[in-house]
Write a structure and sequence with these properties.
peptide deformylase activity, metal-binding, alpha+beta, protein biosynthesis, Peptide Deformylase, globular, Peptide_deformylase, 5 helices, 192 residues
């Protein structure tokens, strides 16, 4: 089932998510719905706060980004083969490498994209959808997508990385999003 995506301004986007256990109610159905919602919205990642759940869960699929790169662009992400997976109770162990800029967007903040600096490599521990523990190293655009979604479960948004002047210039657009004065081709939920 396609779920509505929570728009900027909803307090759930600023909450630090709670860890969950395997007995979380209808977890596998929730994850299935998150995948369907993410793909329906043409996203590459979706965190539980974006569907109004303040838990430490996100899904992401950077395989679709890597698959759509032109041959000359693949050199920009050496060693990044992409990844599709579920991240439960994730914890970043380290963030390494040089910072690099990439034009990020967010399903909860539609029609706003900004260049954001992030480091090129992460080491992260997480549980998959079967609650099997993993510790993996990711780099390139895959690391970036994971960091973006990880921020969501920590109550952060990509616009928090902008300089105050730039954020101030976006204030009217952000206010319009929070008031529902925006049109998108996926279901959204606005603060009343």
């Amino acid at each position: 089932m396609v779920l509505p995506i929570v728009a900027y301004g909803n307090p759930v986007l600023r909450k630090v998510g709670k860890e969950i256990t395997p007995d979380y109610p209808e977890l596998h159905k929730l994850i299935e719905d998150m995948w369907e919602t993410m793909y329906n919205s043409k996203g590459v990642g979706l965190a539980a706060p974006q569907i109004n759940k303040d838990i430490r869960l996100f899904v992401m699929d950077s395989l679709q980004i890597i698959a759509n790169l032109e041959d000359d662009e693949k050199w920009d992400y050496p060693g990044d083969e992409g990844y599709k997976g579920v991240f439960i109770n994730a914890k970043i162990n380290s963030i390494n490498g040089d910072e690099w800029s990439y034009n990020e967007g967010c399903l909860s903040i539609p029609k706003i994209r900004e260049d954001i600096l992030r480091r090129e490599e992460i080491v992260i521990s997480f549980l998959d959808d079967n609650f099997v523990q993993h510790t993996k190293t990711f780099n390139g655009v895959t690391a970036r997508v994971i960091l973006h979604e990880y921020d969501h479960i920590d109550g952060k948004l990509f616009i928090d990385y902008l300089k105050p002047l730039k954020k101030n210039l976006l204030k009217r657009k952000l206010d319009n999003i929070s008031k529902g004065k925006i049109s998108v081709d996926y279901r959204m939920s606005f603060v009343k």
